[in-house]
Every structure is written in structure tokens, then in C-alpha cells.
Design goal:
Elements (H helix, E strand, L loop, with lengths): L1 H20 L1 H4 L14 E2 L6 E2 L6 E6 H6 L15 E4 L8 E4 L2 E2 L12 E5 L2 E2 L13 E8 L13 E7 L7 E10 L3 E11 L4 E12 L3 E3 L4 E3 L2 E15 L2 E12 L7 E4 L6 H8 L10 E2 L5 E18 L2 E18 L11 E18 L6 E21 L10 E21 L4 E22 L4 E25 L2 E9 L5 E2 L10 E2 L3 E13 L4 E21 L5 E20 L6 E15 L5 E2 L14 E2 L12 E13 L3 E12 L2 E2 L9 E2 L2 E12 L4 E8 L9 E4 L9 E4 L7 E9 L1
Parallel strand pairs: 7-10, 14-19
Antiparallel strand pairs: 1-2, 3-9, 4-5, 5-6, 7-8, 9-10, 11-12, 11-44, 12-13, 13-16, 14-15, 16-17, 17-20, 18-43, 20-21, 21-22, 22-23, 23-24, 24-25, 25-26, 26-27, 27-30, 28-29, 30-31, 31-32, 32-33, 33-36, 34-35, 36-37, 37-40, 38-39, 40-41, 41-44, 42-43
């Protein structure tokens, strides 16, 4: 452990040394305006506000940072927002974000939603998998840490990721961008056109293509697995029918086809199983660097996401009435040869999944300046999910080892919400918010065993009512220093475990977090510095978590536990030198996330009585939560200066560090991954007009391997055999890019 910490310290020190080496060069720049920190405006409380005035823990990821390092995937956000992690082992249906250690990832996604809401231009996505896309024409990404159910509702019990895309421009403007990177022949191209369409209309249309060869070598037939091939378009139309009314219409479409997502062997215990012996005989060396697999069946994950929305904002005597109505659809078809062998033990294991949702939000935003200012409204969500799954174990002669399963699920959510500031003085105000909701969940499961001619069905439904609330106080110590304290009660609806291996529909209870938070927001204009601190303590009753049951066959099931998480977060921005266009941003998080009272947790595969497994249960009370590093941090540096006649150069550096963490539910100690640091860099040059820019970039320059999740190998041998899912980002990538503007 000391060696790992020393390595991370030396890596971070090297980055700081590079940044410090820029100071003499930066001192020669002479642009007074560039030395001022730009004011950041967010919509974290459903109205535009200065970030420094918002009593929430918010990390803002600007478009500039994403563009510099050519990070355009949602999965890249975990490297830019400390305290944010993700789980993804086999495609969109198992995808999930974790904030401060709290999150849900499960194949039972027909009924069970994620704990972190993903919102695009004010529209919440009802499925975590629908967020596993790229990030086109982004203006900014706001990561709200902690329960946000008062204003955002739905699946926001851990936090919110809010993506704001670019607005149409009043003047004609066009952009094009292209990049190529190695290894795996990664190339991306995008374009955008925006401008006026008359006196009272503006439009924007964008398109992009992202492609990358696979990075997993399938030794059986030399296929390159885990590739990427996607494209998408987005259109926006802003209309001003009158001086008081603005209407924004948005339509988007995105599609991905990929031979994805397969895992690799990480460890083989003695004695190896026949599956593992076959891999060893094929020349595969298990280990954290293993990028080889050996399967004969299909590996594919194809997704589509599209929708339309209309937002109307009407000014009424200082008040703003906002209506956002949206319809969206998400589809994914995925299949995976899950036996890690050329033998047909489980070649057929796929599902056809579709979700559609309709949302309507209506809210009233009051003006500021009086004793009370507020945001209040109503929200309606209607989501329906259909899935058809096929799983065939030809060598397992047991009932329902081979099966065809159809799941149907529906969720309706109706809520009234509001949050107000009580301005007792010009410096001191109280915070009062609440959300009253009614949620109905329905599920139906039909299973058929074609081998034995068996069938089973299950139906269930329930209605739940809940009150979400927030209370707090906010005090402006000075014009540049603000302190706050809040207590928040969140809620995420329950549902049913629709896992195809289970005959019935086990009930999953709602998730109810209570969060205490204190924060300090400070600005130091003379020092060109912003420094924000937040401390939190959260207790989650009914924490919805997924654990891998050893089977046979192995499967993931949902259970309700209790989660406890506490820690401190820091976010800062600094312009070190007057007259220089040099910005340092640093964010860090210490998160101590543990199980609460959880004496009846499931055992991990192979756990013995000596290791605490008694009657297929273990006591995880106060044990660490998986997928949560105690320490995480992000440091970026952006520096620009004039070079030569009419040219401007830029240098971007970034470092992301994470301490060790458990990589599997429920707390298998053998899956603890050591900490690591990722280093990114970009160097670019172009004219002062920014008409073009050429850059060279690198991500994960130290070529650090890491996994997103570890688990017991399907058809593995003795206890201690593990597989891993290694993402494409877990290898060094270097490329070139060209950006054009007109």
C-alpha cells in the first residue's frame, strides 16, 4: 500500500512540476482580460444562478475540457468529477453511475432504475442504459452530488448528472472537427451549423460519427471484440413568437452497433476448470493486463436512443412559467457468449430490450428580490419497458436452465414540488423544499422452458406515496464568502426483481436517503481564486444493490440493504498569474462509504464459514461499500498564449487519481483493485481568429490497466477464479485532431 501511495504521489508531483515549469513562460503573456476567472452559471436549482450562490455540491465539466482531451463519452465523466464512479460489465442494461458510493447497477432494469438521474436539456432519462452514449455539442455538464429529489425527483436519490447542450446562435456559425488516435484506429468526426432563420427564429443542427476497432483479441477466430461504431444527429429550433414567449424544440437520434462487451480472465485458481484449461491451452495468460478471450459465439450490443421535446418559457410580470414536454425511446439488443470457451456451454444469452417514456414538467419560477423566491411545479412520468430474453444451457439438464422470458414493466410517477428561499435579511436566508409524489409500479414475467415444456408466470403491482424534503440555511459572510447547511430526505421508487433466472417477481423496496450537508463557497478576486468545500453524511435506508448469486447458473439479484456514506469534497479554480491565460482547476473527494446495519447480506461466491458465510448469509455491517475509492481527485491545467505572428498555442494537462476499491458486490475481498493515476495531455496551435486548430493529444499516457468490475468467472474452477471487464480507456491512446470554425 505504501508503494502504491508513493507511486501516486510521485505521479501527481510530476504533473505539478510540469505546471510549475510553465510559470516563467506564462509571465511573459500580456492579456489582462484572460487573467480573470470566468463566472460559471448553472441550473442546479432549476433556474440560472452563479455557481458560488448555489447551496449544493456541484462539479461543472466545461466543454473546453472534454474537447481538449477528446473525451466525448459519458463514461469519461468519472475521470473528471471526483466522487463519481460507474459500473459497466456487459453493455447498457447493466450500466449505472455511483455518487458518493451510492448507486444501482442491475440487469433487472425493466423495473429497477439507477440511483443517479441523467438529465439532458431538462429531460430526465428513465433508464440508466440510455445515458451510455456520447456527449455531442455540449455546453457544460453539471454533476450534482447528494440526493436531489426535491427539484429533480424520480431516480435522483444519489445525485444528478445534468447535460446542457449548445443553444442556437443569433449569427451564422459553422464548426467541423475530426480526430484519429492509436491504438485501435479510433477516429471521430463531427459538424455543427447554427444561425438565424428569420427575425424570430434560430436553428442548430449537429452530427457526429465515432468509430474504434475492438481491443479484445478473440483467439478462436481472431475477431477484434469490444469495438465501437456509432453516429448521431441533433437539431434545435428556438422561436420567439412574442417578446414574452420563447419556445425551444429539440429532436435527436443516436445509434451504436458494436461487437461488445466481453470480459477476460483475471485470475485462475487451482485446480482450473475445463473452461479455464481451454483458455490456458489457447495461449491466454490471465492477469490484469489480459486483453484476450476465446469464444465461438456471438458478442454484440446494439443500441438506439431518440426523442423529441418542446420547452416553452413565458414571462409573466417577473415570473417565468416553464413547460417541458418530451417523448423518448431507448432500444438495445445485446448478446454474449458467456462461457469463455469455444464449447457451447452458454453461447446463446441475449435480450431484446425497449423502453419508451413520456414526461411533462410544468413549473413557476418567481423573481428574486422579495422575502420569498421560489421554484414550484408539477411533474408526470409514464415509462414502459419490454424485454424478450433467450438463455440456453444445452449441457445443463435442469428445468429452466434453458428458457425464453418476456418481461413487461410500467412505472407512473406524479408529483408536486417546490423549493423556496426565505430571505430574512440581505445576507441570511432559509431554504424550504418539498416534493409529494405518487408512484405506481407494475411488472409481468412469462417464462417458457422449450426443453421440458414448462411455463411459469408472475404478476405484481403496487402504489407508493412519499414525501421528499429539504431544509437549510444559507449565510453570506461577505460578498465573496457563503456558508450553508442543509438536511435532505430523498426517495427512489421500488419495483420488482425481473431477473430471468428467478421464477417470481421479488419485491424491491424504495430507497430513502437522508443527507446532512455543510458547505463553504469562497471567491478571492485579487488572487483570481475560487475555493469551495463541502462535508456530508448520508444514511440510505432500503439501499438497492445487486449481488452475484453463484448459482448455478450465476446471476445477479437485487436486495435492500442500508448504506452509510460520509466525507469531504473540494472544488477550486485558480488563475496563478496576472495577465496570463492560465487556469488550474482541482477537485477532490474523500468518501468513507460503508454498509449500515446489514447482518443478512448474501455471501460472495466460494465464501466459507471461516470467512463469515453462515447459512448462505454474511454480516456486512459497517463493511466498505464496493465501487467506491476513499480518495479521488482531478487536476487540469489550461494555458494559452500568442506565438509567432497571428498564432495562438495551447497546452492542456490533466491528472485523475483514485485510491483502491472493492470491485464486486457483495464485498468479495479478492476483488480489491489497487489505486491508479491517469495522465492526459494536449498541445494545439491555430490562428487568433480560431478559424482552425491542429492539436496532438494523449489519454492515459502511463498506459495504466484497470477494470470497471470484477466477478467470479462463469464456469470457473475453484473459489478464487475471477474475470474482469477492462474498458477501452484502460490503455494509452495518442492522436491528432483538426478543428475548423467559420
Amino acid at each position: 500500500m505504501q508503494k502504491v501511495n508513493r507511486h501516486r504521489f510521485m505521479t501527481a508531483a510530476s504533473v505539478v512540476g510540469l505546471l510549475g515549469g510553465l510559470a516563467p513562460v506564462a509571465a511573459r503573456a500580456a492579456d489582462p482580460d484572460a487573467a480573470q476567472l470566468a463566472e460559471i452559471v448553472v441550473t442546479a436549482q432549476k433556474r440560472e444562478e452563479r455557481l458560488q450562490e448555489v447551496p449544493l455540491s456541484v462539479v461543472v465539466v466545461p466543454a473546453q475540457t472534454l474537447q481538449a482531451f477528446r473525451m466525448n463519452q459519458v463514461s469519461d465523466l468519472q475521470h473528471l468529477a471526483p466522487g463519481l464512479t460507474l459500473s459497466n460489465a456487459a453493455g447498457p442494461r447493466s450500466f449505472g453511475f455511483f455518487v458518493r458510493g451510492i448507486g444501482t447497477s442491475s440487469f433487472s432494469s425493466e423495473s429497477i432504475e439507477g440511483s443517479t438521474a441523467f438529465v439532458v436539456d431538462g429531460v430526465v432519462l428513465g433508464q440508466s442504459g440510455a445515458s451510455l452514449t456520447d456527449l455531442p455539442d455540449v455546453d457544460r455538464v453539471e454533476v450534482l452530488r447528494g440526493p436531489q429529489g426535491t427539484l429533480f425527483g424520480k431516480n435522483a436519490s444519489a445525485g444528478v448528472i445534468s447535460v446542457t447542450t449548445r443553444r442556437p446562435s443569433d449569427t451564422f456559425h459553422a464548426e467541423a472537427s475530426g480526430s484519429w488516435a492509436s491504438p485501435d484506429n479510433e477516429w471521430r468526426a463531427s459538424g455543427l451549423v447554427t444561425g438565424p432563420l428569420g427575425d424570430h427564429a434560430r436553428g442548430l443542427i449537429s452530427a457526429r460519427i465515432n468509430r474504434r476497432d475492438g481491443y479484445i483479441d478473440n483467439v478462436f477466430d481472431h475477431r477484434r471484440l469490444n469495438d465501437q461504431d456509432d453516429w448521431g444527429v441533433r437539431g434545435k429550433l428556438e422561436l420567439d413568437p412574442s417578446q414574452d414567449l420563447q419556445v425551444t424544440l429539440i429532436g435527436d437520434y443516436w445509434k451504436r452497433t458494436a461487437d461488445c462487451c466481453i470480459w477476460t480472465l483475471e485470475r485462475v485458481a487451482l485446480p482450473p476448470s475445463a473452461v479455464e484449461l481451454a483458455q490456458l491451452a489457447a495461449g491466454i495468460t490471465p492477469g490484469p493486463d489480459n486483453l484476450k478471450q476465446d469464444v465461438d459465439g456471438d458478442v454484440f450490443s446494439n443500441s438506439e436512443s431518440y426523442g423529441v421535446s418542446a420547452q416553452a418559457d413565458y414571462q409573466l410580470g417577473g415570473y417565468t412559467v416553464t413547460s417541458i414536454i418530451a417523448w423518448r425511446r431507448f432500444l438495445t439488443t445485446d448478446g454474449l457468449d458467456s462461457d469463455s470457451t469455444p464449447l457451447n456451454l452458454l453461447d446463446v444469452n441475449f435480450a431484446d430490450f425497449s423502453q419508451r417514456q413520456f414526461t411533462q414538467e410544468l413549473r413557476l419560477t418567481s423573481p428574486k428580490g422579495g422575502f420569498v423566491d421560489y421554484v414550484a411545479g408539477a411533474f408526470y412520468f409514464d415509462g414502459k419497458v419490454h424485454s424478450a430474453s433467450v438463455q440456453l444451457f444445452p449441457s445443463v439438464p435442469l428445468p429452466f436452465a434453458s428458457k425464453l422470458v418476456v418481461n413487461e414493466a410500467r412505472t407512473k410517477n406524479l408529483a408536486l414540488f417546490g423549493q423556496a428561499n426565505l430571505n430574512f435579511t440581505s445576507q441570511f436566508r432559509g431554504i424550504v423544499g418539498g416534493r409529494v409524489l405518487r408512484e405506481r409500479a407494475e411488472a409481468e414475467k412469462d417464462r417458457r422452458d422449450p426443453r421440458f415444456g414448462l411455463t411459469s408466470t408472475a404478476n405484481a403491482d403496487k402504489t407508493d406515496h412519499a414525501l421528499v424534503w429539504r431544509l437549510g440555511a444559507q449565510y453570506d459572510v461577505t460578498h465573496d464568502v457563503m456558508a450553508f447547511a442543509t438536511v435532505t430526505r430523498g426517495y427512489k421508487g421500488g419495483g420488482y426483481d425481473t431477473n430471468i433466472t428467478i421464477a417470481g417477481l421479488p419485491d424491491v423496496k424504495p430507497e430513502k436517503p437522508t443527507n446532512l450537508e455543510v458547505g463553504l463557497r469562497t471567491s478571492w478576486p485579487d488572487q483570481r481564486l475560487v475555493l469551495n468545500l463541502t462535508a456530508f453524511h448520508t444514511k440510505v435506508k432500503g439501499y438497492q444493490a445487486g449481488a452475484r448469486d453463484p448459482g448455478p447458473p450465476p446471476f445477479t439479484r437485487i436486495f435492500n440493504g442500508e448504506g452509510l456514506t460520509k466525507g469531504v469534497e473540494m472544488d477550486s479554480a485558480w488563475k496563478p498569474l496576472a495577465g496570463a491565460d492560465w487556469t488550474l482547476t482541482a477537485s477532490g473527494a474523500y468518501v468513507d462509504a460503508r454498509w449500515g446495519s446489514f447482518a443478512n447480506a448474501p455471501c460472495f461466491p466460494g465464501q466459507t464459514a471461516a470467512q463469515g458465510c453462515v447459512g448462505a448469509q454474511q454480516d456486512l455491517t459497517h463493511a466498505p461499500l464496493p465501487l467506491t475509492p476513499k480518495w479521488s481527485g482531478s487536476l487540469t491545467s489550461h494555458y494559452e498564449r500568442a506565438v509567432g505572428e497571428g498564432l495562438r498555442a495551447s497546452l492542456d494537462l490533466g491528472a485523475n487519481l483514485r485510491s483502491s476499491e472493492l470491485m464486486a458486490f457483495p464485498n468479495d475481498p479478492s476483488t480489491r483493485r489497487s489505486g491508479y493515476t491517469l495522465i492526459n495531455a494536449s498541445v494545439g496551435v491555430g490562428p487568433e481568429s480560431r478559424a482552425w486548430r491542429v492539436s496532438v493529444f494523449g489519454r492515459n499516457l502511463t498506459d495504466k490497466r484497470y477494470s470497471l468490475i470484477d466477478f467470479s468467472t462463469p464456469f470457473g474452477g475453484a473459489s478464487g477464479s475471477y474475470s474482469q471487464f477492462i474498458p477501452a480507456e484502460a490503455q494509452r491512446r495518442v492522436g491528432v485532431a483538426l478543428d475548423l470554425r467559420y
